[in-house]
Amino acid sequence: MKSPVQIKRVYEDPADTDGLRVFIDRLWPRGLSKAAFQYDLWCKDLAPSPALRTWFGHKPEHWDGFRRDYAAELKDEQAQARMGEVFEAAGGRRITLVFGAKDPEHNHALVLADAMNDYARRHRIA
Q: What are the residue ranges of helices labelled H in 20-101?
């Protein structure tokens, strides 16, 4: 089964296969005008908490702790409810989480996509 949630950097061009484009950063990406950026939802509330984001600082040596702590934040009742709202808004289409981080191997979108794909499996969303 194909994962219902994928990730893409904000600087990549949108594609027809993106489905629902969900911007998942708390802060607006540098150098990107609001007129040029295409997204359907802005879910600041699914981004890591400001304290966790600051602590992580995109340092690879903090990755394991960040991933663990952010995954714990995403198990919160409000985060789980918000994930459900995003799936509902997608209406069965693919969800593309759009993020601004430069590092393709150490970013919050990877953790959130895993959490949302797990949510989809648990709730039998295809």
A: 50-56, 63-73, 77-90
C-alpha 3: how far from its chain's center? 14
- Cα 17 to the chain's mean position, in Å? 17
- Which pair of tokens denotes residue 22? 């969900």
Q: How many domains does the chain have?
A: 1
Taking the C-alpha atoms of residue 16 and residue 14, their distance in angstroms, rounded to an integer, is 7
Q: What are 20-79's pLDDT values in tens digits?
A: 999 999 999 988 998 889 999 999 999 999 999 999 999 999 999 999 999 999 999 999
d(CA 115, CA 109): 10
Token pair belonging to 29: 């990406």
Containing structural domain, residue 73: 5-122
Tokens at residue 34, please? Answer: 């609001």
